[in-house]
């Protein structure tokens, strides 16, 4: 169960950081590099074998589905 909440926290953190950096990059073009770096991190997160395993285990749980669909 610990892995579920660790995975959920990772998803929430990425979502929050990307939303914030998207806003910041509209205000300051220097933040675009930060956003680009975070999106690269998201891509690595998505193709990670470990995260794929966690998605197959926890992907149907309401909390995970909620954050993934927002």
**N- and C-termini, Cα separation:** 23 Å
Low-confidence runs: none
- Tell me the radius of gyration: 13 Å
Mean pLDDT value: 92
Q: Tally of extended strands? A: 0
Number of helices: 4
Derived structural class = mainly alpha
Tell me about the biggest sheet?
none
The helix content is: over 70%
Question: How much of the sequence is in beta strands?
Answer: under 5%
Order of H and E elements: HHHH
Overall 3D geometry? elongated
Structure description:
- The protein is built from four helices and no strands.
- By secondary structure, the chain is mainly alpha-helical.
- It starts with a helix and ends with a helix.
How is this fold's topology laid out?
Layout (H helix, E strand, L loop, with lengths): L1 H26 L3 H17 L1 H10 L3 H7 L2
Helix pairs in contact: 1-2, 1-4
Features:
single chain, mainly alpha, elongated
Summarize the structure.
This protein has 70 residues and is mainly alpha-helical. The protein has four helices and no strands. The longest helix is centred in the N-terminal third of the chain and has 26 residues, at 2-27.
